[in-house]
Amino acid sequence: MTTETIKVLLADDQALVRAGFRSLLARAKDIEVVGEAGTGDEAVRTARAVRPDVVLMDIRMPGTDGLTATRTLTGDPDLTECRVIVLTTFETDEYVFAALRAGASGFLTKEIEPDDLRQAVRAVAAGDALLSPSATRRVVAQFAHRPAAPAVTPERLSVLTARERELTRLVATGLSNDEIAARLVISPLTAKTHITRALAKLGVRDRAQLVILAYETGLVVPGAQADERTEAPERPA
Questions:
Q1: What's the Rg (C-alpha) of the chain?
Q2: What is the pLDDT of residues 150-177, one digit of tens each?
Q3: 82 near 51, Cβ under 8 Å?
């Protein structure tokens, strides 16, 4: 069986950084860098031309920044299969949270190890979110300290079964599939299956977006812990 090559677009205003990532990715037979961009506008134009599977997107670029470019790419109906990984200098970059809300599938620091970079590209290309439990907790902390987001009606979750709602809640509190499986006494595969179904029913791209939606609908309350009863009460009809 042949493995399809993962097409990657590099978007960073520093040519040296792009060259470094290109060199690291070139060592993988299943990954090909199909384009480079030095600005957000160029990233959008190039992505529309080469149709990459994954865009490694720097946030701070001249002109249109990476956050705006991410929002444009993830909102383009012709690029529904394109996934964006945000590149940051520090994991606590203030723009990471906004980038996830703009549709990014996760983020990486520029100090990432070569093998981890290649694996991250493969994971996101396969449809997984590059959002570890620790990263999820940072997103949750950011959410708790920001003004309330525009309300998303809790009825948005009505398509989920009780089990899928529970799994969504646990994902949003920062638990991994293995931790969820241990808590609910189910297999990790079963946990993953429920989460995958929740993603499909809610029409969200990946785990990162599921976390955001859980907070926006009030399914989880900012500051609550995974072992607390965090689901918001039903609103009266």
A1: 18
A2: 456 778 899 999 999 999 999 887 788 8
A3: yes
